[in-house]
Request: fold
Amino acid sequence: MSKVVSVIIPVFNTRADDLVRAIESVLQQTFPSFELLLVDDCGTSAETEAVLKRYREHPKVRWIRNPENVGVAGSRNRGISLAEGEWISFLDHDDYYKPQFLEKLMTGTKDSVDVVISGYENVDDNGRVLSLFPESDEEFEEERFVERNGMIWNRLFRRSVLLEKGILFPEHRLMEDTVFCLRCAPLRSRTQVVPVREYCYYSSNSTSITHSKKNRMLSQEQLPFAELEQIIESGEYKRTIYYENTLLNAMMEVCCWLSTYSAAEVQQYAAEEAEKMFRRLNLSGEELSQILRAGDNSTFGRLLLRGYWFAAKHHKEQGFARLANRIIRLLRGQ
Reply:
């Protein structure tokens, strides 16, 4: 049977138990027509390599080793370029699928659809559910559901469309998932919601790619301002409160990281560039106020407000406060 779905897992010095769980969750899928691409980003862990070797001869697994370290975004992009399936699914190495993830999402695929999107569960080490997204089944029916859903791994993407439109992850940048989702915004009318939560997001692992990325000093070159400005200039993203909220949140979260993991000159650069970008959104004071009000009740809004908690926790750092104050002035129409 031909391969219909290509599942891409970027791998870099991953804890063995987590990686085995992720791989087995794919191999145990009830939907049979898939391939699993393990993209090894030049890892140095013998433990990780042993797991990769264990599955190297499996007929549904392809082990791809990058010639040089390119990060999670570059590994996903390489997986997209080498995949043989019609549909692409991304799985983080410390997360896992429920057995019917692919089968249920494939029910949403048809000729008029380029993206299939679902919900997910936040789980702990023991698989205990910590929270749901969305919190209620009724939210699946809301028009804003797609805009609120800023994750890339609870979806299927039509591979030919990603390649045709050049929708790839920005490499060596923060917020690569956010940029990718915003680049997918023109596909909103060709997106199908499947109201299930078959993806398990493991939010407790401090050794994950996301956490390890924050554990090193960040540089100016890692900031995604150029990519976000290109999205704004293109005008192709759907201008709604929730997409605008995504952009605001992206900048706030970038600054959260910068406030602890970068030098003062990078913090200053971020604040200045973010303010320029916000002004280029050309939003009226009322539109900005609507975004702020929507933030009280949306997922992106909760992330936005989380930034203030971060600033309080790291109160001796000034980078976040600098950008936050600029944003507050803009929201007030100043």
In short: The chain has two domains: 5-210, 216-331. The CA atoms of residues 72 and 209 lie 8 Å apart. The chain has 14 helices and eleven strands. The radius of gyration is 20 Å.
